[in-house]
Design a protein that fits this description.
Layout: E1 2-7, H1 14-25, E2 28-31, H2 32-42, H3 45-55, H4 62-75, E3 79-83, H5 89-98, E4 104-111, H6 114-122, E5 124-126, E6 133-135, H7 162-176, H8 179-182, E7 187-191, H9 196-207
Parallel strand pairs: 1-3, 1-4, 2-3, 4-7
Antiparallel strand pairs: 5-6
Helix pairs in contact: 1-9, 2-3, 6-7
Bound molecules: adenosine monophosphate (AMP).
Adenosine monophosphate binds at residues 10, 32-33, 36, 53-54, 57-60, 65, 84-87, 91, 159, 168.
Length: 210
């Protein structure tokens, strides 16, 4: 099994890179944040349980996340690109414990400054219909704040406001940044402040050669 992990603060470009790499590497992407947001909009038991944490930028408990990940892995034995997992030492240790020595594990650290994160996230908009992501400064929609694909009015994620962005970044530094050291043996570091096409070119050479 091949496991590629995208590690970096919110706004580092994990989602954009995961989508690009999924195509060239032929792997499925598991986006923990999307799964939780979908559960919240559907009003399921899981959604009701995680709603407050997600909307206030706090981490959901490890048990819940690990159950979702284990289920996904049993259904995707060829491998996966993780966007948003692991985010704590406990999640990282549990992932390593379920991997086989023959599995291929790589952690891509999108090293991104606090300034870049705030600039990107406060201008980020999302289509509630098709999920397409825009940035009013760097990648605006063609017309007004409407989705280019389905013409739906774009929304700002509840956790993309300045107060919650700062809280998410604080939690990233405390809980997730230590994973850079934990994964030192399988780490690839990339400058996450660079434009998306530059980052993708660098990753593509490593992950999708030929
Ligand atoms: P994201 O879209 O990756 O920024 O995730 C949005 C929110 O979902 C986070 O702020 C957390 O509340 C929750 N979340 C996503 N992934 C995880 C994870 N691996 N562990 C705990 N909470 C998570």
């Amino acid at each position: 099994m091949r496991i590629e992990i995208l590690l970096g603060p919110p706004g580092a470009g994990k989602g954009t890179m995961a989508a690009y790499l999924s195509r060239c590497a032929g792997l499925s992407v598991f986006v923990t944040g999307d799964v939780l947001r979908q559960a919240i909009s559907s009003g399921s038991e899981l959604g009701q349980r995680v709603k407050v944490d997600v909307e206030q930028g706090r981490l959901v408990d490890d048990e819940t996340i690990l159950n979702l990940v284990k289920k996904f892995l049993t259904e995707h034995s060829e491998g996966v690109i993780f966007d948003g997992f692991p985010r704590t030492l406990r999640q990282a240790e549990d992932l390593r414990a379920i991997l086989d020595p023959a599995d291929e594990l790589r952690v891509i650290h999108l090293d991104t400054s606090a300034e870049t994160v705030v600039a990107r996230l406060s201008a980020r908009r999302m289509c509630p219909q098709c999920g397409r992501i825009y940035n009013l400064r760097f990648k605006p929609p063609l017309t007004d704040e409407l989705c280019d694909e389905c013409n739906t009015r774009l929304i700002q994620r509840k956790d993309d406001t300045e107060v919650v962005i700062k809280e998410r970044y604080r939690i990233y530094l405390k809980e997730t940044a230590p994973l850079v050291g934990y994964f030192a043996d399988v780490l690839m570091k990339v400058d996450g402040n660079a434009p998306a096409d530059v980052v993708f070119r660098e990753l593509k050479e490593e992950l999708c050669p030929g």
